[in-house]
Amino acid sequence: MATDELSSKLNRRLLIEEGAEEPVAVEEPEPEAAENGSEEEKPSTASADPELGAKLLRRGELNDGQAEPQRPSMKVFNPHTEFKEFSRKQIKDMEKTFKTYDAGHDNYIDLMELKLMMEKLGAPQTHLGLKNMIKEVDEDLDNKLSFREFLLIFRKAAAGELSEDSGLSVLARLSEIDVSTEGVKGAKTFFEAKVQAINESSKYEAEIRQEQEDKKKQAEDQKQRRAAFKELQSAFK
Question: How far apart are CA 102 and CA 108, in angstroms?
């Protein structure tokens, strides 16, 4: 009863602060009664809804000027420059997998979408297991996976930073994206780092050239098919 009453009070206070309700004047209790009342309510505060308490605490900090409101980051994310250990093809495969399970098309995989993903991969997880999977790479603490955080799973898997029985390790293993051939490469010396950077740059350029060649070849094939079709049409006229 005490928990329900306190939760009701906390909810009402939030509504008043947001302007959804008008405050109601109450009489000040006697000092003795107030002290007794505070002593009685202390145990119920500890058992109150933690999420509601956290919201109330943060709103109080915002009102007192002790906290800054969260603002979305304006930084542009480029997977090819931030995740250089992966080839363009690997990142495209990861992006394709991510979009497959982003059922809401909001560029995030939330808890329910991750649940569906693990079930389709044949490795269903408990509710707590799913929450722990997100928590392990959830850098912005929004309780869902962005594409960048999704890529972090495969970076950790390639670096051997995930335990074999963890949900993320299972996800990386069953997603049919091979990261073992690339891995997360570290240079032992400055010169090795320089050579590695040059090699990665050359590889990146080679992949772009290959993509351009593939597109050019496809365009040529389409052109030849159209010409052959027109020639066939003219033969029947």
Answer: 6
